[in-house]
Amino acid sequence: MIIYGLNTCSTCKKALKAMEQAGKDVVFRDVRAEPLSETELATLIAEFGDRLVDRTTNDWRSLSDWLKHSEAEDQLAAKPKLMARPVIHDGDAYYLGWDEAVQQVLLSE
Q1: Options 3.90.930.12, 3.30.720.10, 3.30.420.10, 3.40.30.10; CATH of 2-107
Q2: Alpha carbons 62 and 93: distance in angstroms, whole number
Q3: pLDDT tens across 37-63, in order?
Q4: Which of 99, 94, 50 lies closest to 72, judged by CA?
Q5: What's the mean pLDDT in 2-24?
Q6: With 80 as the cut, is the pLDDT of residue 109 above it?
Q7: What does the similarity note say (predicted)?
Q8: Looking at residue 39, what is its pLDDT?
Q9: Enclosing H/E stretch for 2
């Protein structure tokens, strides 16, 4: 299982801690330190579409108008920190966020 996020993100830290406490074999990948490849990004865009970009952040608001109106891939390539997080890859499944539904699926396995 891989958790994609930022090492400074409190939600990512909560997800990682909960998974480890549940005995899951988890690898954490900071997308700022190790950006997603084009293939990885394309897979996540295909899975989540525009939901992969967190448009509620100051980072998104500070983007140029051109970049704000560009594709999600371009926005995330320019600023990996814009990725909604965490993204969890477990086997063939992908999950976005750490809400109750995601927790219930991943922690009850």
Answers
A1: 3.40.30.10
A2: 32
A3: 999 999 999 999 999 999 998 988 999
A4: 50
A5: 96
A6: no
A7: Belongs to the ArsC family.
A8: 93
A9: strand 2-5
Say how far apart CA 8 and CA 61 lie, in whole Å.
20
**Helix/strand/coil percentages in the chain, nearest 5:** 50, 15, 35
Question: Partners of 88 in the beta sheet?
Answer: 3, 95
Spatial neighbors of 21 by CB under 8 A, at least 6 apart, are none
Residue with tokens 């927790």: 103
Domain residue ranges in the chain? 2-107
Locate 86 and state its tokens.
């965490």
